[in-house]
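[Q] Does anyone have a clean structure-token version of this?
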Amino acid sequence: MNKLITIYVLNKKQNSSLFILSILSIILLLLRVKITHSIYLLFLLWNLFLALIPYSISSYIKFNFSIKRSNLKNLIYLIIWLLFIPNTFYLITDFVHLHHNNFLQYIFDFTLLSSFTIAGFYFGILSIYDIHKLTKSIYSKRISNAFIISISYLCAFGIYLGRILRFNSWDIISNPSKLFYSIIDCLFEIETIIFTIEFGSLILISYLITYHLTLKNKLYEKY
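[A] Here you go.
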């Protein structure tokens, strides 16, 4: 518990923004339930929780990583992070649930889904940023950049497995054989390739924009 509190304090500004954004998203969702008397989009809460997991893991790794100790522990955390990081960007695919004839309902749901998507992307981008800084401190700039590019497209492929093939992050443990054979079957299909390239590029561009804006802000803070 003390470690969690420490991590929150050290990332207070960043975590406060995420907290406010998440709360606003949840308020909009609860307001929708109140107005429509429907729990149709309540699954967004679960998806947002899944987006929180990789961010929590990357924050923990950032403040507890050590090259000299617990290499196996660090590796386990990183593998778990890799399994869950696609969940942060997965929220954008929830727009498939946007289908109302009522214009006001459509606008409200669009705003609701947008707020959850932005929150998820924010979790994902900041989480990747933490890991990127860590890899830059250990490896060369070229290797760390290649790692981030790879993560972006692996996230997109993970989203494909989740949205199109309906797998979950924990299927690698609960149903590994089916997951493995499904990956082999779809790996070179044109639909898979196009989906991965499109979403991977979106994630990568979003990250690069955030990364350079963050660097620019840090430069301004120095002067």
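[Q] Thanks! Anything notable?
[A] Confidence is low (pLDDT under 50) at residues 4-10.
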